[in-house]
Amino acid sequence: MKLSIVGTLYCSAPFLREFYERVSGVAKKLCDEDYEIIFVNDGSPDESLLIAIDLFKEDPHVRIFDLSRNFGHHQAMLTGLEKARGQKVFLIDTDLEERPEYLEDFNRELDCTGCDVVYGVQDDRKGGWFERWSGALAYFIYGLLIDVEHPRNVVTMRLMKRGYVNALLEFKEYEVTISFLWAITGFDQRPQVIKKLKRMGTSYSFGKKFDHFINAITSFSAAPLKFIFYSGLAIFMISLIYSIITFYQKIAFNIPIDGWTSLILSIWLLSGILILSIGVVGIYLMKIFMETKKRPRTIIKSEYVR
User: Fold this and answer.
1) Cα separation, 217 vs 214, whole angstroms
2) C-alpha dihedral over 204, 210, 212, 213, to 10 degrees?
3) Fold (CATH) for 3-204+297-304
4) What's the confidence (pLDDT) of residue 214?
5) How far apart are CA 51 and CA 10, in angstroms?
6) N or C: which end of the chain has fewer CB within 10 A?
7) What is the mean pLDDT of residues 126-133?
8) Which of 200, 188, 196 is nearest to 161 (CA)?
9) Over the chain, what HEC string results?
10) For residue 219, which of 180, 186, 183 has the smallest C-alpha distance?
11) Dmax over Cα atoms in the chain, in whole Å?
12) How sure is the predictor about 303, in pLDDT bands with cuts at 50, 70 and 90?
């Protein structure tokens, strides 16, 4: 099979049929009839699955994998990639923020350059000032803490060759941050600038984005643990120097030791650092705990395949 198109479903009902029609048109143009469209239903609470089943009945190119619950966007994407059979795999969200017609441009770039992956990056990050500012800050912190060449403003949409997909699926961790997995898999990857549209409403709240940020750092960097060590070392050295100075002033000059305010502030500072340190270590222990359980990333409840 020449091409697999993989998309996840979560509150996708308003866009799904239009997405199907548009991406099918491009696929037929590129591969005639030698393609498949894979939908992974990630526990969508709306009618996305019912619409996808109607498309399955109408078109033999459509395959559906219905997950037993909502496992998360990244896990659902990997499930779709595991089921893809094409020599090229096009991964894209079904909400039409990314135009399906970009597939033609991506395929041209892939064939002309001989690279392994063509992925989309936004020409200008969408959203209001806070979303753009927080996104820029996140990428800045990634650059400081994580030793991975992660492209800025990357989007879901990407066209991949089979060898790259097979290598990507070698990663078996339960706690998934897929954009960093894309990066550390290697191969020859080329960016393609796209215009990402903005629609009202999104399932990616600020809380989910922040969880993704924390997960990325603790999955691909030991810098927070090193920060705890160096912070403790710095506090110890400052406290030791201050204690020596205070003791010398008391012995040599009989200067009284006072300062309830400084004492309380010191207690608060050290308590905050201790609690933060315990929290950071707890996150790493939690990740180790989850990975050692070897739980499946997703569970497929039902399949609609031919």
Assistant:
1) 5
2) 140
3) Spore Coat Polysaccharide Biosynthesis Protein SpsA; Chain A (3.90.550)
4) 73
5) 12
6) C
7) 64
8) 188
9) CCEEEEEEECCCHHHHHHHHHHHHHHHHHHHCCCEEEEEEECCCCCCHHHHHHHHHHHCCCEEEEEECCCCCHHHHHHHHHHHCCCCEEEECCCCCCCCCCHHHHHHHHHHHHCCCEEEEEECCCCCCHHHHHHHHHHHHHHHHHCCCCCCCCEEEEEEEEHHHHHHHCCCCCCCCCHHHHHHHCCCCEEEEEECCCCCCCCCCCHHHHHHHHHHHHHHHCCHHHHHHHHHHHHHHHHHHHHHHHHHHHHHHHCCCCCCHHHHHHHHHHHHHHHHHHHHHHHHHHHHHHHHHCCCCCCCEEEEECC
10) 180
11) 93
12) very high
Q: In this structure, which amino acid lies at residue 183? A: A
pLDDT higher at 266 or 200? 266
Q: Which tokens hold the place of 305?
A: 């395949």
Residue in this structure with the two tokens 């091409």, named with its chain if needed: 3
**Tokens 């989309």, located at residue:** 120
Amino acid identity at 12: S
**Whole-model pTM?**
0.75
